[in-house]
Design goal:
The chain has helices spanning 70-84, 226-235, 238-247, 264-271, and strands at residues 4-5, 20-36, 52-61, 65-69, 103-107, 113-120, 123-130, 137-145, 148-157, 160-167, 185-191, 196-205, 211-215, 222-223, 254-255. It is α+β, with helices and mostly antiparallel strands. The strands form two sheets. Strands 2, 3, 4, 5, 6, 7, 8, 9, 10, 11, 12, 13 and 14 form a 13-stranded mixed beta sheet that branches. Strand 6 and strand 7 form a beta hairpin. The two termini are 34 Å apart.
């Protein structure tokens, strides 16, 4: 049986759109093919993970950087266009693929911190952590990515062991997510469990033609200690979320594919257990 949301269709699938506030200018944009495991218990017949996919962008500014789902940006732009033109799909503007990563990471905002915005179980959560040193070991192995010569490095960071490939031909000490602090740009990264993998597929030099933005409703994201957020995320069920929404006056109901009610056993199976949670940061 598949879940069908009757009364608030997009509430679980679309990241809220707010007006945005610029905090820096984009100097460079790197795009990464992103593959990750959301549910570590799901394996195929050969024991391989079932991967989710996204296309992440890293906007590098003069002081602040932002790492986010480019697929969600494209989907939100399409949704905005569709709503403005009567809500009808057209061949000229087909519905694009939605993103899979429901968080956005800021480097050095506020100054000296990593900030992550989560859209999780219909809640807006913000966590902040100090930028800490990463003790890389450079192995000397080399390869080529996007035509750039790259060197291999490894480090333990926030609960995972990372292997990355960086190029000194791009003298920017950053990379996907919070990875960085090497003498060049990280173009490829994977943790040892093969649960999070990033591979650069594009680079643009924007020279301050676009802004790095925060939501103007930044403070609407509840600032929460990471440990508390992780506990909430690991223990909260869809049923808890439905009850909270109904209590707030937003009527939410689910039905089976044929429009009927879920039998109690099926409902418990579908909605009364926490949904999979495999964060990239395993420090808590």
């Amino acid at each position: 049986m598949n879940r069908i949301l009757l009364s608030i269709g997009l509430i679980f699938s679309v990241i809220p759109l707010f007006a945005q506030e610029p905090v820096d200018k984009v100097m460079y944009r790197f795009t990464y093919k992103t593959d990750f495991v959301n549910d570590t218990t799901l394996r195929d017949s050969l024991g391989h993970y079932q991967y989710a996919h996204d296309e992440m962008a890293l906007d590098v500014g003069t002081k602040v950087s932002k790492f986010y789902s480019m697929l969600w940006v494209k989907y939100d732009e399409w949704l905005d266009y569709t709503i403005k033109h009567g809500g009808e799909h057209t061949k000229d503007h087909p519905e694009p693929k939605r993103g899979s990563v429901l968080w956005t990471s800021y480097y050095n905002y506020p100054e000296g911190k990593h900030t992550t915005l989560y859209y999780s179980l219909n809640n807006l959560i913000r966590t902040e952590d100090p930028i800490t040193p990463i003790a890389w070991t450079i192995t000397g192995d080399t390869c080529s990515i996007l035509g750039y010569p790259c060197t291999r490095a490894e480090a333990d960071y926030l609960g995972r062991h990372w292997t990355v490939w960086y190029t000194e031909d791009i003298p920017i000490s950053q990379g996907p997510w919070q990875l960085g602090q090497l003498p060049g740009m990280i173009l490829k990264a994977a943790d040892s469990r093969r649960q999070w993998m990033f591979t650069a597929i594009g680079m643009e030099q924007l020279d301050e033609k676009e802004n790095i933005c925060l939501d103007k409703k930044w403070k609407k994201y509840e600032l929460m200690p990471k440990k508390k957020f992780y506990h909430w995320r690991r223990t909260t069920t869809p049923d808890d979320m439905i009850k909270a929404l109904n209590a707030s006056g937003v009527k939410v109901t689910f039905s089976t594919e044929d429009g009927g009610e879920y039998p109690p056993e099926e409902y418990r199976k579908e909605f009364m257990s926490p949904t999979p949670f495999n964060p990239i940061d395993l420090s808590e």
